[in-house]
Structure formats: structure tokens, C-alpha cells
Amino acid sequence: MEFARLMSLPALGVGLLLNPDTLASPEAEGAYQYLSIIPDRFWLDAGTGAADRHRELRPSVAALDLLAERVPIICHSIGLSIGSASLFDTGHLEQIARWQRRYRFAWHSDHLAFSRLAEHGVEVNAAVTLPLTRDDESLDLLVERIAAIQSQVQGPFLLENNVYFVIPPDEPYSEAAFLNELCSRSGCGLLLDLHNLYVNATNHGFAAEALLDELDLRQVVEIHIAGGDELAGFYTDSHAGPVANAVWPLLERTLRAAPWVRGVTFEYHESYAGLLSKGGVARELRRAREIWERYCRGAP
């Protein structure tokens, strides 16, 4: 993304990923400055080829309409599966475009990954985001698809760095170099998930700070912060309650170096709401906002 275009976007501040628990946490209202939504949770998808494919869940959409009157809404989709070699879901894009016209997201994003496979007319969803090989073939695929997204959906498009548990041998690009090249070739921006970065650094034994030093932070529009937990010998991106302690210094380091970032989003999964009882959501948001205001208030 051109830096001038990034700077033209509104600086939204500190936001919260909307989930069913959010509306049951009134103490958080006022602590967030915007909401990030997973739009796929607001409709039923009958699948590619269906005549009336996306059936919106009216009570949920009505609640979102009320929220959108009070705070800015941005879009973080999970359904595109941009890295699927065997399919590219233009119907999903059409639905995102309809919602962009409806809610006027400052930007929209998805994951730099794939989860859907299609063969002989049968589609399978892995129910987990899987990483792409960091090579030129993947870059060519992504650049073509990002161009289609940018032509169909108004507003900047961001991709989020993904968690990975296996690293293919002999990849020609490091993670940071791949992200830099992708943004340079495609014009997309970056949603930098600092917890995903910490997960990968923990599981693969590298320094998260070294990757940040290599990354072109002029491409970072939004940051995600979250927590995780251990599973089967790995540290996971489970969005388990409070932000992981090691993520806070990464946030401070990144915003110090990149005060132009337009938003910091706290994510947690509603199944871990008990870990954020007694005002825990508001506490995490306030801490993030203190860091944001230290480095980003008054930034150009």
C-alpha cells in the first residue's frame, strides 16, 4: 500500500473484536473506539453456486446496525481462503462488497492463508488457517487475487500474517521478506498480528523482534493483540483471555517505530470470557490505549 494512502485513513485508535460476549460486557463499552467484526458470523452460507447463497441472520445484523450508529466498524473476514490453489470464491467477495457499501469500513481484511480445498466438485474446509509456501508461485497467485479484490471491494485491503506449525524446507523468502514483497507487488496493506508473531517465535525458536526489524512497517495499517495457551506441546493462537504478557512490549516497540498505525484491535474468544471477568476486557483495552496514546496521539 502506498504510504500516502495509509496516512489518509482515519486513525481509529484501540478497538475490540466483536463476539457474542462483547454485548454482555457493558463495562467494555466506552473503552473501545471501534469494533472489528467477522462478517461471516452474521450470515448463513449455502455454498458456491447456491441461488440465494448468503442468508443474513436478522437479529444479529439488527444489533450490528445499532452499534454502527455509535462507533466505526471494520471488517475482518475468515471465509475467503485467498491461498486456495483450486478455488477463488468471487461470491464471497460480492457479499463483502455489499457489506462494504452498507457499513463503509475504513478498510477490510482477511488471512494470508487457506482453509478450503476443492477437487472434483467437492469442497472440504479444514476449519483451520493453513500457511502458504513462501515462494514466487504463491506471490503470483496472491497478487492476481488481490487485484480482483481491490477492483471489486471499495477501500484498502489488508492481509494478516498467519500462524504456522511447520516450515517447509528451502523456502526462498523469509517471512518478513515475503510480506514485504507481497505488499510491494500487490498494493495491499498488512494487518500485523503480534500474537501470531509471538506464537511462531515461541514454537520455532526465533526472536520476534528480529522479524519486526526486517518488516517494512510502512505497510502496517492495523495491529492485533491477543492471548493463547498450550496444546499438545505447542503454544497456540487460541485468543484465550488476556493479552499474552510478551505481546505488550512488542506492541510498544511497533508503535514507537510506526506511529502511523491506524488501529490496534484486542481479540479474545467468547469461550474464554471467564478469564476476563470483573472488567478484564476494559482493562486490556485501557492498557492498549495507554500505549497507543503514548506513541500515536498527534502522529501525522
From TrEMBL:
Q: Which Pfam families does UniProt cross-reference here?
A: MbnB_TglH_ChrH (PF05114)
Q: Which InterPro entries match?
A: MbnB/TglH/ChrH, Xyl_isomerase-like_sf
**Alphabetized NCBIfam families for the sequence:** PRK05409.1
Name of the protein in its database record? DUF692 family multinuclear iron-containing protein
Species of origin: Variovorax humicola
